[in-house]
Known about the structure:
The complex is a heterotrimer.
Chain A: H1 27-34, E1 39-42, E2 49-50, E3 57-58, E4 63-64, E5 68-70, E6 75-83, E7 96-103, E8 110-114, E9 127-132, E10 145-150
Antiparallel strand pairs in A: 1-2, 1-5, 3-4, 6-7, 6-9, 7-8, 9-10
Chain B: E1 6-13, H1 24-39, E2 48-53, H2 55-58, E3 79-83, H3 86-98, E4 104-112, H4 118-123, H5 138-151, H6 157-170, H7 185-189, E5 193-195, E6 198-199, E7 208-217, H8 218-224, E8 229-238, H9 252-261, E9 270-272, H10 278-288, E10 295-296, H11 301-304, H12 311-324, E11 330-337, E12 343-350
Parallel strand pairs in B: 2-3, 2-4, 9-10, 9-11
Antiparallel strand pairs in B: 1-7, 1-8, 4-7, 5-6, 8-12, 11-12
Chain C: E1 5-12, H1 24-39, E2 48-52, H2 65-68, E3 79-82, H3 88-101, E4 107-115, H4 121-124, H5 138-154, H6 160-172, H7 187-191, E5 195-198, E6 200-201, E7 210-219, H8 220-225, E8 231-240, H9 254-267, H10 272-275, E9 278-280, H11 288-295, H12 304-309, H13 326-329, H14 333-349, E10 362-369, E11 374-381
Helix pairs in contact in C: 3-14
Amino acid sequence: MSEADGIMRLRQPISVTYNWSAGPNATSHLNGLLDGTLVGKRCPGCSLVYFPPRNGVCPKCARILGDDVVVGPRGTITTFCVVNVPFLGQKIKLPYVAAQILLDGADISMQHLIQECEAADVRIGMRVEPVWKDRSEWGPSLENIAHFRPTGEPDRDMGVEAGAS
Amino acid sequence: MARRDVAIVATAQRPNEVGSTLTSVELILPVINDVIAKVGIERQKIGFWCHGSCDYMSGQPFSFVAAVDAIGAWPPIVESHVEGDGALALYEAWVKIQTGECDVALVFSNGKTTSGPIDRILNLQADPYMVTPLWPGFDSLAALQARACLDAGVLSEADMAEVAARSYRDALNNPIAYAKENVTAEQLLARPYTTAPLRAHDCGVPVDGANAIILAAGDAARSLAERPAWIRGIDHRIDTQRLGARSMTESSSAAIAAAKAGVGDDRIDIAELHAPYTHQEILLRRAMNLGEGTHVNPSGGALVSNPAMAAGLARFAEAAESVFSGSADRVLAHCTSGPMLQQNLVCVMEGE
Amino acid sequence: MADLCAVVGVGQTKHASCRADVSIAGLVREAVDRALADANIGIDDVDAIVIGKAPDPLEGVAMPELWLADALAAHGKPVFRVHTAGSVGGSTAIVAAQHVMAGIHGTVLTVGFEKQSDGNAMWALSVPIPFGMPVHAGAGGYFSPIVRGYIKRSGAPSHIGAMVAVKDRTNACKNPYAHLHEPDWTLEKALESPMMWDPIRFVETCPSSDGAMALVIMSEERADKHAGPKAWVHATAMRSEPTAFAGREQVSPRAGEMCAEDLWRKGGITNPAKEIDVAEIYVPFAWFEPMWLENLGFAPRNEGWRWVEDGVTDIGGSLPINPSGGVMSTNPIGASGMLRFGEAAMQVMGKAGEHQIDGARKAVGHAYGGGSQFFAMWLVSSSKP
Ligand SMILES: [Zn+2]
């Protein structure tokens, strides 16, 4: 049966509204963002520093993260991709570089944008720093950072860390 | 039927609450660590992990993936997840132990039921072409079933209020129950309808909760618990979902599962029934032939705290604890899923 | 202690970007009916049904196994639902097999499906989460940095991904059920394909498909009495690890290595590359073929790409990978893992038609999911262990 012969599909939009919880263990991290400070957390088990403090938990140790640790603001690109695909809900102009950035003092990389340089010039080991939006636009979100840009420092040798998270 | 004796050896449950600001990981982590501490076992000795939850409950596809962060999955673990109640995760773990691949398993579940409109979310379980677009609501579907039962003379509104009054009173003795009240059926019947013929007390209270259970086989179970709750029979069955195609006044899937699990072989001291609506408890008692000698839901049941996707596993925890304490010898735990008691899992446990 | 079990029936749908001609239930039933016919049994002969699919928001039906009970004539039977992200098709087949291995049921039907055209998959795979940074760019945006890490570590030349893509798309033309039938790909043409998520080219990505795969699994007792070829399940394995922790190896996750080690040990395999005749592995982005060759223990570290270059993984090679065309040619997410498991079974049953590997006796089905963190594998053979 062709579509002309009858109803083949129906459109049924579904909308459900949720209250999203950040959780108490993310409070200092989110308050830090309101203040322009990058706050991570140290695991009391393995001493590694998580930024952002994913769910407030060290997945390796299954322990609630402990002390706050100020990290960055500079960091190193551990790996990246150049995105050329338009996405629904995506708020960034194409093409752009999505990079994994290991902030100084942190032990796990975070994903953010790289701008103010050609996509072709981005490389593993490149040193970058955050460019903050105007303070009037800030909220408790990593979106306070518009993007990261190269610092011009010499590259770091990421060695075996390349491809690690 | 089962070739290996498997028992629940420890349980842990969070106090049920409304409007929790915790993430699902923060909900889960304490109960996991708690239940492991209770048996004093090294994480590496847990041969299988199984999680029950629902993406639509948390509003995020792959929401269960975050839970792997909470359980210490390093070095890597043998792990699985069911989109459904933790009681089904327990069933999968029981199957796994029956294959002989492991002796000790940990199952857990979480439901942040109050972070979204649960009545609307559960509506998404219905036929997406014919029923969901009408958005009848989950309570309304239950109300249809209750009305059919009332009209058929299977039960009365007073019977339903009795179930609620008993549950609310029993909950006074349960520190983790959310709703509790020293109330009589007469008092409840004086309250207004919410979705007629259902009143507020006829509908389980949506809460946020999490729980975890450790299962072990044979000697491992004996070494981990003084009085393990041995699983003597466990089975689950499903009915049609088509509203016009099934009897609304009985639950045939519950009856089959109960028979397969051996419910009728002996007296049941305590039955923890996952009945999110008062009339459903009555239907379940009938389907399973539970007599006057059985205390139903001494915990208060899902009526007083209904953490979606965790309320079934909570019944296992409550039933097993009554065996641990020696207050019961033969108990029943039950879990339902889907609209109007569509799917039912029944388990019989005994002390040794 | 576990009983033996065997796959006695395999059935899949015609996969396509949009199967507008069937409902979700119709799609599932198409695969189920073919599996039952292949096993020469009726749906009444089935004791229990195990269903797997990826996230429910892909179609907008919560726990659809409840509603599908009607389409599967499941009234009064056990229906069980599994969801382990992208590995779900594999995990589901394993859970189904374990119902038989545990002696609980004699005949289990298992089905994995996804009808991605019914919803918005790009949205469902990349829902923006408050407080974070919405740079996520779908699965490709997540996996492409990992591929970059592999290229840097192994020194692989940049054409390897395109070689895998051309091989899989060419193989798919021998598989009547495959979604993509694109016979004209050459390496030159593939290298001109636009970069989507640099270093991943468009041709090196999988399609988004509607489709389903179903298997009938029987106990040894029943399978012995059953006429026709069987795929005996020699071993199953599953492993999981967290998505992200400080220092996590993402190119070759430990969970994948452990899962493979477990599979080889249970299956009595000491030299996988020699003893395995064919493997269907989960390759949603072409570069994952050399990465998984290493992770599974087929190829030495940093050598996987050489195997691709040397044609080892071609249909005529010594270790054909994805003769069906694989995920690169067909990707109904919740079914993709079961397609790998089912295609492996078809190979040892001698039912793979034009993409049959001559004399295949031992085959591996592999699936992974999440952030390369959930692994499911099975080893099947034409004969009992
Ligand atoms: Zn730690």
